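<instruction>
Derive structure tokens from the sequence
<data>
Labelled lines for chain and fold:
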Amino acid sequence: VTATDLALKPIGPFDLDLLVALSKACFDDSHLNRQAVAEILAMPGAFGILVLVEDAPGGFLLARVAADECEILSIGVRPSCRRRGLARRLLREALAQAAAAGGRSVFLEVGEDNDGARKLYLSEGFNQVGRRPEYYRRPCGETVAGLVFRRELTGCTESR
């Protein structure tokens, strides 16, 4: 996938059903429903981004900025679109939007078993700052620790 094949689009109120379907395609254990997405997007400082691959939704990111902190609530990429730089593109756009909104740091959580995501976050300057045992429950009933990552934003979004 080249940069010209990808486009970023803000998530709006008419994208709720699309976002729910995309989340279910990205995560076996997705709990997002139309009401949850609407509530997230209605929160002060909340924003969402879709990444389109050849005009088809390939992934999404939901985040919110409160005071000087940004929390990435969810980031997902369709299995057929993974390993093509979409998550990195979404993450970098979110970092830029958070910085523009006055964010000074960004937090996110990831399942301890998600090696690809952990490597992405580390490569983008995040550091692990916490661990929540048995935080995620997988569809099979297994529990997995949630790892908390943080990154400072001061003047670094342009250089990455």
